[in-house]
């Protein structure tokens, strides 16, 4: 996995400008922050943005908006993943609530074409150029076309009691695990484990398990040749209909609709 920090200093070198960075490679950056707001669009594959207490999972044809000052790190695990980053000055961003909140959003055809079009731009277009004006127009569109954020967020923790539980769930995601079975594995009561999830992750056991399974299913849709029935069983569901119902509940679309959007 490549660790490349060469571009980080360049992004905020001129806080009033827009910086464009497109790449396709496996990458794992250290924790850092920008003065500028960050749009990261995943054109193909899947990417992960880690914050101090949660991880955002960004599937293909979606983007994440990060306000300036948010400490994070980007992780790309698959070389086929194409990432398009645009970093914007935060000037006047307080005039629209959208720019001050981290969120993952699906992309429409117009926004997709606009982002792809920036692939030939200079890294830092001068403010008196058409390229710069195009980028500002793109930014101004975001609150209008991105009104519903997707819940592709997994809470994380460094708690020594919680970490083994999270690892166990991740490694046994295909099995019919329950609150009781996990509690018994760690010699805990159901109530103690339930309280631990609420205290450390601010989420219930069932909510966490549901999110992990849907994210795993999404990863499989993007990076394996498995059909939806196989994915359903590999993520712990006893039927495709059960997987589809949960997927729609989390993503507001059925798995087949998600695949068709890629």
Automatic annotation (TrEMBL):
Residues 163-261 form the HTH araC/xylS-type domain. Keywords: DNA-binding, Transcription, Transcription regulation. The keyword 4Fe-4S does not apply. PANTHER family: HTH-TYPE TRANSCRIPTIONAL REGULATOR NIMR (PTHR11019), TRANSCRIPTIONAL REGULATOR-RELATED (PTHR11019:SF159). It comes from Mucilaginibacter yixingensis. It comes from the Bacteria. InterPro entries: AraC-bd, Homeodomain-like_sf, HTH_AraC, RmlC-like_jellyroll, RmlC_Cupin_sf. PROSITE patterns: HTH_ARAC_FAMILY_2. Pfam families: AraC_binding, HTH_18. This is AraC family transcriptional regulator. The lineage of its organism: Bacteria, Pseudomonadati, Bacteroidota, Sphingobacteriia, Sphingobacteriales. Transmembrane segments: none annotated. GO terms for molecular function: DNA-binding transcription factor activity; sequence-specific DNA binding. SUPFAM superfamilies: Homeodomain-like, RmlC-like cupins. Signal peptide: none annotated. Gene3D superfamilies: Homeodomain-like (1.10.10.60), Jelly Rolls (2.60.120.10).
């Amino acid at each position: 996995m490549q660790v490349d920090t060469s571009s980080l200093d360049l992004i905020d070198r001129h806080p009033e400008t827009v910086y464009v960075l497109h790449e396709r490679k496996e990458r794992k950056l250290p924790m850092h922050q920008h003065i500028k707001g960050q749009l990261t669009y995943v054109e193909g594959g899947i990417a992960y943005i880690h914050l101090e207490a949660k991880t955002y999972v960004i599937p293909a044809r979606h983007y994440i908006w990060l306000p300036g000052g948010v400490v994070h790190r980007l992780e790309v695990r698959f070389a086929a993943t194409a990432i398009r980053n645009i970093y914007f000055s935060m000037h006047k961003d307080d005039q629209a609530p959208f720019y001050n909140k981290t969120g993952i959003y699906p992309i429409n055809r117009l926004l997709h074409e606009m982002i792809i079009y920036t692939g030939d731009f200079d890294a830092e277009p001068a403010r008196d150029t058409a390229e710069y004006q195009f980028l500002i127009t793109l930014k101004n569109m975001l609150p209008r076309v991105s009104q519903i954020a997707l819940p592709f967020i997994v809470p994380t923790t460094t708690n020594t009691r919680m970490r083994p539980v999270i690892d166990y769930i991740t490694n046994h995601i295909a099995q019919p695990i329950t609150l009781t079975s996990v509690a018994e594995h760690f010699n805990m009561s159901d109530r103690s484990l339930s309280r631990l999830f609420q205290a450390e992750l601010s989420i219930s056991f069932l909510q966490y398990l549901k999110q992990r399974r849907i994210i795993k299913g999404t990863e499989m849709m993007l990076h394996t040749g498995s059909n939806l029935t196989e994915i359903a069983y590999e993520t712990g569901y006893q039927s495709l209909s059960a997987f589809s119902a949960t997927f729609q509940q989390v993503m507001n679309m059925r798995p087949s609709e998600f695949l068709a959007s890629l």
